[in-house]
Each structure stands twice: as structure tokens, then as C-alpha cells.
Amino acid sequence: MIEYGEVVDIKEDMARVRFRRTSACGRCKACGMLSGQNEIVVEVPNELNATVGDYVAVSIKMQKALRASAIAYVFPLFMLIAGVFTGWLLSGVWHIFANQDAAMAVSAIIFVLLSFLLLKIASPIYNKTVGNVYTMVRRKKKDESVV
């Protein structure tokens, strides 16, 4: 998928590109824009030496974007379920805790927090695996019209 955005900032070899909601938005959610948002700013490698104010065509690799979403959303959900199950084991099966509901709730919260910590620790590996979701493919100057 290719979307056009405006370069709003340049930092070293990365460009911050602002995308505005189009008619195609809302179906794929690959860019991370929420339903209530009208625009989003993402960092894109500045391979075309774009300058602030340029409009650039950015290719979004859907498979990598979906993989990133799966990791970011499914892993905490899996950890939540594992936490509930662990709480059930600790109280219902092994009888370590008296209150089964409280043990399941506390265990679930601990496992979800642990999942966020693990995602944060693993982010360098995660970024290599699903990185480069965005790629600049074409640049237009400030005075050219955007298709």
C-alpha cells in the first residue's frame, strides 16, 4: 500500500511524515491511526533526502505491519490468559491462596505487566524483525501537486 504524507521534521537519517486520514483509512489500520484520529506522524528512513514540506509517497508493508500488530496485541492477551490460569492453579488446584478470584485477578495483572516489560526488553529484536514497515518510494517538492 502506498500513501502520501508531508515531511514535518528531519532528524539525522529519519524523516517524520504526517499522514492525513483518507477514504481508504479505517480498513487496514497498518499505520496505527485510531478511528478518532485525523492524522498520524510516523518515522520513515529518509532515503530520498526529502526536506521539510516535501510530500513523499511511502510504501507500507502490510505483512510486517500485521506481524507487528500481532506481537503487540496478541502477546499481552496470551499473557493475561496465562496469568488467569496460573492464579487458578495457585488457588484452586494447589491451594496456596484462599481466595481463588483474587489470586486469578492479581496473577493476571502481574502477567500482563510482565508482558509489557518483556516487549520493552525485546524491542531491539522486535524492531529488527518487523522494522522498516515504511519506505519512501517517491518525493514531490513543495510546489508540485499530490496525486
Shape: elongated
Question: End-to-end distance, in Å?
Answer: 15 Å
Rg, alpha carbons: 21 Å
Query: Can you name the CATH architecture of the largest domain?
Result: Beta Barrel
Record the strand order, biggest sheet.
3-2-1-4-5
Please name the CATH topology of the largest domain: OB fold (Dihydrolipoamide Acetyltransferase, E2P)
Total tally of structural domains: 2
The unreliable regions are none
How much helical structure, as a percent, in the residues?
40-55%
Query: Overall pLDDT, averaged?
Result: 86
> What is the name of the CATH class of the largest domain?
Mainly Beta
Largest sheet: 5 strands, antiparallel
Strand tally = 5
Please tell me about this protein's structure.
The chain is α+β, with helices and mostly antiparallel strands. Helices cover 42% and strands 25% of the residues. It contains three helices and five strands, in the order ββββαααβ. The chain has helices spanning 62-93, 100-121, 123-130; strands at residues 2-11, 14-20, 39-45, 55-60, 134-140. β1 (2-11) and β2 form a beta hairpin. α1 (62-93) packs antiparallel against α2 (100-121). It is elongated and about 70 Å long.
Secondary structure layout plus pairing:
Blueprint: E1 2-11, E2 14-20, E3 39-45, E4 55-60, H1 62-93, H2 100-121, H3 123-130, E5 134-140
Antiparallel strand pairs: 1-2, 1-4, 2-3, 4-5
Helix pairs in contact: 1-2
Write a compact overview of the structure shown.
42% of the residues lie in helices and 25% in strands. By secondary structure, the protein is an alpha+beta fold.
